[in-house]
Amino acid sequence: MTPKGYFVADGLNQRVVLLDRSLNPVRIAGRDGDGPGEYRFPRRMAPAVDQVLVLDIGAGRVSYLTLDGDFVTSQQVPGNANDVALHSELGLLVAGDAFPDYYLARVTAQGNEAFGRIPDELRTDPEGVFQLPVDLVTVTGNGLIHVLDGDQLALASFDPDGELVSVVFLPREMRARELRLNREAVESFGGPERVLGTEIVTSLRPLPDGRIFARITSEHTIGLVLDPAGLEATPLVFPADREDWLWMQASTVYFDGMDRLVLNEGLKAAGLLTAQVEFVRRSP
Predict the structure, then answer these.
(1) What is the pLDDT of residues 220-265, one digit of tens each?
(2) Is 247 left (phi over 0), alpha (psi -120 to 50) or beta?
(3) What is d(CA 17, CA 126) in angstroms, rounded to the nearest whole number?
(4) Distance of alpha carbon 201 from alpha carbon 68, whole angstroms
(5) Residue 100 and residue 111: Cα distance in Å, rounded?
(6) pTM score, two decimals?
(7) Phi, psi for residue 162 in degrees, rounded to 5
(8) What whole-number distance in Å separates Cα of residue 231 and Cα of residue 239?
(9) Number of C-beta neighbours around residue 214 at 10 A
(10) 59: closest CA among 109, 9, 116?
């Protein structure tokens, strides 16, 4: 999302689609290929101050676009990347498997550096099999770097020096349920030796008020609003009387300010729609 509208990574057609604030298409940028402004499989996008980053996992690189969709430059990324964010001081941060003991790789002109050491309480015993990375990364206005640990369902926050600031776990019952369902799904497909990876949380984005939105579907929950400062995770839920919420399980969700959502209709149809958001005080 930009002040002018929305960017959509169309991985099936190797392109980026620009929409205005009314969700009307205004431009198609890119095509299949390995050259400047071309893509193999654009999968994720991340905002910058006056640019938009496009993570092309098929080409193993990040492309930088202007807010009008013009190609500026690109950078190769190390390892298997799952998400990217741009930090005003640190530059490009890549969530992936480039450094086994760290969440992130910092990409600089001098080379790649490890960043964000995995806390001991979030470490898992290696399975001895290849798994694609599922961690997500974003940066908030105060300069903190936040990583959603996709295996442990916890938000680890770091300062620009790489020091751990806090760890926020998803709500206990939801976390236990989602981890159990994920294990069952992996086993049903033949176990970790046959499954390259599964993703429970599908996006991580900063909100205007300093909190973070994590996209996860659990019963009537569309996602979680995470507060690293208060160490809280608040579910964003549908009204109890809504009967059409099931299709939203496959949708992609974007916050537009603090009062509107933009949803990709997922498997239901190829289109976007908006929904109003209302924050209510929870009972103690």
Answers:
(1) 677 888 888 887 888 877 665 555 555 555 566 666 666 666 666 5
(2) alpha
(3) 39
(4) 29
(5) 17
(6) 0.85
(7) 90, 5
(8) 25
(9) 24
(10) 9
